[in-house]
Amino acid sequence: IEWYRPRIREMHRVLKDTGSIYLQCDHRLVHYLKVLMDKIFGLDRFRNEIIWDSGSVSGGKSRANNWIMKHDNILYYVKNIDSYTFNKKYLPYNNSYLSSFRPDEKGDLYRLRDGKRVYLKNLKGMPISNVWSDIKSFQTITQAKEYTGYNTQKPKALLERIIRASSNEGDTVADFFCGSGTTGVVAKELGRNYILCDINPRAVEISENRLNGINYQ
Fold first, then answer.
1. pLDDT (tens digit, 9 = 90+) per residue, 37-76?
2. Residue 200: phi, psi to the nearest 5?
3. Predicted TM-score (pTM) above 0.85
């Protein structure tokens, strides 16, 4: 864990007051990293722990003589509790919920709540919770077009959710362990500036190729 300390301190130092940090890990390290992050950022800067339910229990991992691991942890902290950027995100309503609406005289869909009409067109959707089960990892979607084969690669949908929520167009997004470069690819697509770092020459090569539009499939 001490290996992470100087790096996380530097991330905290360069982070803007409006900025956030998302630290993805698994069950083996999350408890130690939570304590380390609390010490560096401050316990009151901890906003949430996201549980990324990343796929099925099939494949090689299902043979383990244990409860099968099916999620990763993402620790979410902010630099300044009074000024951080957060754009609340929503998912479309499911069919069961939509079926509770009916058309009014003009054909606009509504449902009754406390005796008053609530119109579907005025609703934003279902607020996203801290359990994400709608984004699958590449252990499950191995044939995805975006998959490069890099073993720690994350889906673009995961980074898109995080970047949209905690930054605005023109902001700078940094990933100091960029791996396959997904953070930079998504940031570029969403009109953000980006900084990518990695010690692995293969990661640098893949990231540069993806940013230049090379498709690995």
1. 999 999 999 999 999 998 776 666 677 888 888 899 999 9
2. -90, 120
3. yes
